[in-house]
Amino acid sequence: MDGQRIIGINYPQLRALCGISGLSESGISQSSVDAHEEFMNLYQKIFLQPKKIPPGIPLGRESNISHASQTLKAMESQARQERNRNRPQEKQTQEMLINHAIRALKKRPIERSQKDLQVILKMLKMFPCLSTQLPKQELNKISSIGVVETWDRSQILFGHDGFFLMLKGSVKPYTRKGSREDQNKPAIGVGGFFGSFEPPQSEDSGNITQCALTLEVCEIFKISHSGYAKLKEDIAAKDHAMKESLIKSCQYYLSWPKLSINHLTKLIQLKTFPANQVLVKEGRVCSFVAYIREGECTLLQDIGALIHPAKKKGVGIKSVVVRRLGCMESFGEVSVLQEQPSSCTIITSTELQAGIIQPEALRDLDSVTISLMLQTAQPTCRKLSQEEITKEYMRQEKSKEWDHIKNKTKQNRDSTERNRTAGGLEWTALLLSTADRRSGADRSGGSRPRRLSF
């Protein structure tokens, strides 16, 4: 141990380990249990652990580290300068938009043009307190009912009757007692708000700032409780009328009483599906009832396994188009209410907008409406026999083949016409070029003096 040293060994720790009393020496005696346990617990300490290199800049020369650090600092400084350079421009653009919106808001709602409403809406979308709290429909309509109010310095605003958004200036929460808590609250600046869209409940009233004191001249956008309530009623009425019209336009519901249609209208949810999405699979119960508003669906039935005659390899599952569903049509009523597997696969041909009713909501309807739906609605499509499916499949395949031949012939004809036209133009250009050269030669020949013969 005192001779040649081995790299990676902690020799002071090794000496301490060998000095444990109770260890056997040269096999003369057996080690005691305590000495053996102490040795096993401590022997790993005789091996030196390699130093861990932290992640980040690789270890190397100090000059490299210094250079990398300087580069990083330069990049951060450049990014900070870029942000600071763009910030005044963004602030200026925001202030210009607010000024334009204030001018539009000072007009009476009935006098605002479509351009005014677009400017107001664009400004309102800048503020998260509106864009995150209000649904899209309400946010789009707020610009037609909101007004702007101008308040001088040191005036008290009461926010019990609406929602107030700061466009210019600043205010501070205020109570009649002037408590220390109000003094510690920060001022509300541009983009801040106080009040509420709807009258607060008793338990929430303490969390909402109801009064404010103006610290300077302020321009404040206001939405009254009554105006917001009227807006919600108008949107709900329009939505209800649209859903009612959607149901009544479907052929099975033309003679339904208004009360039963209202029951369905309350359950409908509007949804948009992308093209080529499978809505229902053949042999499975429909996952919802759908009333198509816009778009088209394709109904397919499997024709079983077919061996491809050309390839003579593998088996493919083919489908035949049974029919198509479009605007003012519905599907899924019988399948959902009777838990009947669908006889066809339904795929969206285009983007589809539809009103859907979930099975749980449909089954909770009153018995009269359910009975009426079962009496009037029909299965989406009947199950074709194997012979009918095969015939229809062959007809559609022949139609596809014929369309392919027609398109190919048309393309070849168009290509021939283009080549013929291009060839004619080339010949015309060649003839014109030859004629120009000849006329040039004639002109040059005419200018030469004649040679006299003696």
Give keywords.
alpha+beta; disordered C terminus; 18% strand; 4-stranded antiparallel β-sheet; 13 helices; extended; Jelly Rolls; 454 residues; Cyclic nucleotide-binding domain-containing protein
Structure description:
The chain has 454 residues and is of the alpha+beta class. Among the domains are: 11-46, no CATH class; 103-231, Jelly Rolls; 249-387, Jelly Rolls (Sandwich). 44% of the residues lie in helices and 18% in strands. It has helices at 11-18, 33-42, 62-105, 114-124, 128-131, 136-142, 180-184, 225-248, 258-265, 333-337, 359-363, 367-376, 386-446, and strands at 147-151, 156-158, 162-168, 171-173, 193-195, 211-214, 218-224, 269-273, 278-280, 289-294, 297-307, 315-325, 330-331, 345-348, 352-357. It has a four-stranded antiparallel beta sheet with strand order 1-7-3-5. A four-stranded antiparallel beta sheet has the order 8-15-10-13. The protein has a four-stranded antiparallel beta sheet with strand order 9-14-11-12, with helices on one face. A hairpin with a 7-residue loop joins strand 11 (297-307) and strand 12 (315-325). Helix 3 (62-105) packs antiparallel against helix 4 (114-124) and helix 8 (225-248) packs across helix 9 (258-265). The termini are far apart. Residues 252-365 form the Cyclic nucleotide-binding domain. This is Cyclic nucleotide-binding domain-containing protein. It comes from Astyanax mexicanus (Blind cave fish). Residues 69-93, 400-421 are annotated as: Disordered.
